[in-house]
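hiii, so i know i said id send this last week but things got crazy w the move. better late than never?? heres the sequnce for the chain we talked about at the cafe, plus the structure i predicted for it. fair warning i was half asleep when i ran it
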Amino acid sequence: MSRIGKKPVKLPTGVRASVAERVVTVEGPLGKLTFQHRPEVAVAVKGQELVVTRESDERLCRALHGLTRAMLQNMVVGVTSGYEKKLELIGVGYIAALDAKTNTLQLRVGFANEVQKPVPQGLKVTCPDQTHVLVKGIDKQLVGQFAAEVRAVRKPEPYKGKGIRYDGEQVRRKAGKAVTGKT
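okay and structure toks below
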């Protein structure tokens, strides 16, 4: 039995969940999320809990059991408190700005042209200052995907550490060619 899958997902006060066909809908103070689960597992609402069960002990069913429960837990957390990722730009002249008219994130990170990243629907992106970007939303996957796409524009490089990194991320630094021993 899946250790994660057999734990029920508790619904806090103010959060409602419903299951119709194979679509689970979770509504909370921050918004509404839907998820269509696979037919190998079943989801039921019992009181103030979501319970996930599986039909057999096949490998795929066992994997989907824990996955479905984790997805439902992420939905409950998303509609109650939301998710956020912080990014920081390290480098001389590296700046980020948000164009409110077109809802695009503008990045100047050492390329000849400015990089424009359109902000997906359902996300709130802010720039507290020119070297920090804050991505907020209720969908964990969407927040993480957009933050990863922004980071991929200019990953932190190992020699000087310049680039876009997650807040608090440690970048492994390499010694340059001047350090090599001459024999």
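btw The first helix runs from residue 59 to 80. thought thatd interest u
miss u guys!!
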